[in-house]
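Data deposition worksheet. Section B asks for the primary sequence of the deposited chain exactly as it was used as input, without tags or linkers unless they were present during the calculation. Section C holds the resulting structure in token form. Section D is free text for depositor observations; keep each observation to a single sentence. Incomplete worksheets are returned to the depositor.
Section A, Depositor: J.P.
Section B:
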Amino acid sequence: MPAYRIDVETGNRYFGDTRSNVSIKLFDWHGHETDSIPLVPNRPEHAFWINYTESFTVNIEGLTGDIAAVEVSKDNSGRQPAWYLRTVKVTNLETNASYSFGFYHWFSLRNGLNHRREYVGTVYWSCRDMSDSPIVNHHFITIIFRNEDAARSICSIVYPDIYILGNPESETFDGNTLYFITIGWFAHGAGQGQPMRCVINQQDDVMSVREHLNPDRYVDIYAPDFSYEKKAMPVMLLDEALNDEGKIIRAVMQAAACYSRYQQQHDDLPEFDSISFNPVTCASFVNTLFAKIGYSKRRREQASDMSGFDVGEGTTLSMSYFLQPET
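Section C:
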């Protein structure tokens, strides 16, 4: 039975400590979960103190592979029942694999006594050089997963009937393997006036990510790179829809899947237009998708500010392309 160390960090907030009973559940990517594990401190009178990390060692069986999520619960007993939880870190003491979960959240009757966080990955607003121009940027989305279990589980459970959301790509370097997917929009044919279609793992998008992750293998003076850039879309702690990396990744993939489904069933897709007052480009689709899932205009402007020449990153298209169809 493997042993795990669970480090629970209470945040630095006034009245953020608690003497309530706290428990935790752990989940893997294969549908297994533990029973609720009480976190009983050695010195209950000093447990879960402000700006203090309490460590617990527990023996756990029944989990396979990487930890996918944790769920922390508390009752409303004891002195100072409200609690501000900052982070939870779970370490497998046999493999030394560790998993960090940011909560930054109040546990209370008002805000809820049970909260869950996932260990999935990060979403990036990305850009690279256009395939035929090193000056103009092509914008797209990159999702880099934390491990293979996360990548394959997420990709298989979000709209599995949309074949275009297929297997993640991988790149191995320095003994580590990273798994990722790219989501981009492209106008085929002559470009101007052509419908924009969503493409998952488009060849040049994927290569630009590989060059970024493993430049020693792919980049040299005889093979100019795509000058890949990325900016992480932040976890928004005060927004229930965006306060966890798992929620963000699922929302992005669901919105992309909705557009993919729409383009399979309709011909009235937005058309590429880089010369009008309100241009419609690949950047416009990235901007609209992030607006759809809840990111503010200010956050999107910060993320889209890249090196090089950008067109259409401020345009917002109709949200109807990213909505689930009515049944």
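Section D:
The chain has a mean pLDDT of 89.
The first strand starts at residue 3 and ends at 10.
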